[in-house]
Fold each of these.
Amino acid sequence: MDTFEINKIAGAILGSLLLAMGLSVIGQMIFAHRALLKPGYDLPVPTETTAAGGEGGGAPAVAPLPERLAKADVSKGQANTKACQACHNFEKGAGAKVGPDLYGVVDRPKGSVAGFAYSDGMKAKGGDWTFDDLDHFLTNPKAYVSGTKMAFAGEADPQKRADIIDYLHTLSDAPVPLPAAAAPAKEAAPAAPAGEAAPAAPAGEAAPGK
């Protein structure tokens, strides 16, 4: 290969490099970003939680169990136990399956079904299955009984739990009474403005305190 051919090849390579460098400079000029005023990125600020609930207000307050049981629906509770029937019997005398039978479970001592292999956590729990205990257990079985064999993850809906508990409460020869809901607080009568006499008692009635 003579010197002229070598020079042609070297010139072509040099020209390609110069073209590439030129395109890079032009591209940086076109697509250059403005300098940031400060480093980093602005992160979204979390909204404050309030007791009123709603957007940014946290979880709504759960009504006490007696109030939820007062408006519970037994038929809905029975329907909500269909998934439980794979592991539990609900009929009297049907015996245990994967889990213990649930007939008469309300007010029954925990871990007391004869012949069923309870977990150590359930055997150590002690006490009877009260309405409150069932509510806490159905909310999160693994949190209520450490090491429980119960595969059910829990029911998050408070009213669904009340419906189920109300249904379980009926599965007994002598159902225990449901807990009474607290009576609503009575509003106090408005005080009379200063300088005005209190309204007189109707004829025939004694004034309060007499």
Amino acid sequence: MRSGFVSIIGRTNAGKSSLLNALLNEKIVIVSHKQNATRRKINGIVMNEGDQIIFVDTPGLHESEKILNKLMINEAVKSMGDCDAMIFIASVHDDTSDYEKFLNLNPKKPHILVLSKVDEVSNEKLLKKMMQYQNFQSRFTALVPFSIKKQSYQKPLLDEICKLLPEHAYFYDPQFLTDTNEKEIFRDFILEAIYENLSDEIPYLSDVSVDKVVEKAGITEIFATIITEKDTHKSMIIGKNGETIKRIGIFARKLIKNLTNCKIYLKLDVVVKRGWSKDEKIIKKLIGY
């Protein structure tokens, strides 16, 4: 019996969250085409025969001078030392520069290199890309291609991961998908709804606080607050006659309902906290760093 923690590392938009959702066969983490969507670490628990893998989804590695982004990067780097092993995920479309930057961080724990989005290229291009990464074969324990859409190579990937885990009793009940509080997942789903229903700038200056969750017979009531930096942003989030926040609510309720299989009532308020994304104390309290 093996059990341990595996951090999923990679640049923003490399497919880390999509990989975790695919391995869980359930959506529990935010997925967006916009950069830096993942702000918080979320654990996903996967059983592979008799072994237990606790995956840790992390913010993407990138370079930024913004306080919020710096804190996100610190969380990702910290997770590299707190785990038993790592997955570095790289898009098959990328060159090797992001992986080289990762290696320059001198990771101490063993890692597997996963090439994502392989269904989007020909076998010839995939083999060419794999040959490029073979130049670093002394640094990784395995190189595994993976298609999230087709979920190909899932079993070989899980088998390779388990080889790196220590012999240990299960950390969690094998029936659990995650140890993350439901409120944290709801918060990220609402944030994803904001990302998908607003322009590029606004989501990065907004976040969500889930204030209360009330479980009733046949329905879960969620009361949440969207926090943003400017009155103009608040107006854009609400939209003309409340149309935008209505769309956000519909989108978020669908995500939450798909996870909980329960009818959802969602009440969203919007407040302005000027400069919150530049205030380390507010960020740590809001996001949990």
